[in-house]
Task: inverse folding
């Protein structure tokens, strides 16, 4: 695990729109690729998983929890966040929030994921993630270790 | 009783669904344990009720006679609670 924050400032991107869901996954993964938390294999696996299993990773309105099999193409536990002001289509479901989860095994990320998800489960925070600026979103996750 | 939250890899969405199920179970005061796992393991794991996404329901139903409930919004307590209550209603018959 790099740095002190679960989702650090560099892991958070806010854009106006994306051309399609695959590019959204690639863009969302960029911070984790850049610091070698994951390899390109993991990005390809996430895209393949949606193609194989459908958009089941869309677990709330506009929210996609993107991930693939743990350990394959994953060097360290990591998470990154992309929000798009305009929704894009993920195999039939509208999405504005992409949370990339890279886990090394079945267990070691659970506490981290719980902390991050408790932010998303708060209605006010969820609205901030949807509509807020990058700065406001960064603040939501600041201090989560 | 035992509830199983199921997703493709057992590390992401099923974990979130377990969090919501845990809350619902506590709120309703049911004596139930909640576990989460991937679809392959779920097929070989006995539970009183299974909760998963619409996409995986069909696959899971082939491996169990116990009820499988599709959940659309894993973080929505009301939807998960409605599914749990549906299951509890089947136990009252």
Result:
């Amino acid at each position: 695990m790099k740095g002190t924050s679960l989702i650090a400032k560099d892991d958070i991107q806010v854009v106006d729109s994306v051309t399609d869901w695959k590019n959204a996954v690639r863009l969302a993964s960029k911070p984790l690729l850049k610091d070698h938390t994951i390899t390109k294999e993991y990005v390809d696996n996430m895209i393949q998983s949606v193609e194989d299993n459908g958009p089941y990773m869309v677990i709330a309105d506009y929210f996609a929890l993107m991930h693939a099999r743990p350990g394959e193409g994953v060097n360290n536990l990591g998470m990154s966040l992309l929000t798009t002001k305009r929704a894009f289509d993920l195999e039939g479901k509208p999405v504005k929030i992409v949370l990339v989860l890279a886990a090394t095994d079945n267990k070691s990320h659970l506490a981290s994921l719980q902390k991050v998800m408790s932010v998303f489960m708060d209605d006010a925070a969820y609205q901030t993630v949807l509509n807020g600026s990058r700065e406001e979103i960064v603040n939501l996750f600041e201090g989560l270790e | 009783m035992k509830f199983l939250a199921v997703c493709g890899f057992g590390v992401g969405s099923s974990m979130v669904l377990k969090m919501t199920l845990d809350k619902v179970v506590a709120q309703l005061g049911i004596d139930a344990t909640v576990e989460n796992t991937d679809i392959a393991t779920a097929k070989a794991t006995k539970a009183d009720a299974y909760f998963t996404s619409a996409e995986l329901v069909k696959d899971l139903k082939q491996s169990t006679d116990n009820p499988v409930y599709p959940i659309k919004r894993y973080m929505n307590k009301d939807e998960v609670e409605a599914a749990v209550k549906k299951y509890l209603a089947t136990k009252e018959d």
In short: The domain at 9-131 of chain A is CATH 3.40.930.10 (Mannitol-specific EII; Chain A). The CA atoms of residues 70 and 105 of chain A lie 5 Å apart.
